[in-house]
Amino acid sequence: MSLSRRTAARSVRFLGVTAASAALALSAAGNALACEIGEFSAAAGCDGTKGVITVTDKDPSGTPAVVTVFLENNGADLRQVGEQTVEGSKKGVTITFDEDWAPGAVYRIHVKAIKNKKVLVDEDIEGNLTTPAEACKTDDDTTSPSPSASESESGTPSSTPSTPADTASPSPSDSSDSSDDNTVPSASNAPSPAAQESNLAETGASNTGLIAGVAAVLVVIGGGAVFFGMRRRGSGNR
Asked: Is residue 17 part of a domain?
């Protein structure tokens, strides 16, 4: 009987240790998935010409959290910008507050998360949020379109002077009268020096051919006379 009691006592102790270990493991796992303020971040940016403030929740447990944004002035809340509920994820879930913020403004972002009636987070994002030094661009900042080429060309004075309207060209009657009064004999009827030289050249060429032909005939006649004279002399000597 004593042995059975000892065995039972050991069994009870073993079960107690196992239960305690399981409780610690579950508690550690629960703490690992618990919502923390370090999983929240905020930033100020622009959506076109409008200013916005974004808050990102990277809580892997997805615990619902209420995010409230306040505009600060010398360490005190000036006004509440807005309030939204976000359920985070491991990749991150972002919510947006429309706020026409001024450069260098300071905002306080408060986060409150409750799960199973237990408050997990109830504090501000550390360091607050300070907006950039330059505000979002407005419609006035856009550049105006440059004047078209046609407008610039139409505004440029023309460099070509216009012809006076009262300038009249001489009429045919005026020119004919002036030609009748000052009649000058035309020089087109007189032979030009080039024509005279060409005529002389042609005449000289034709005379040269005639003279050469007569000379050739005379040479032939003379040669025949000499030939016949020599034959007669030869026959007389015999």
From this structure: no
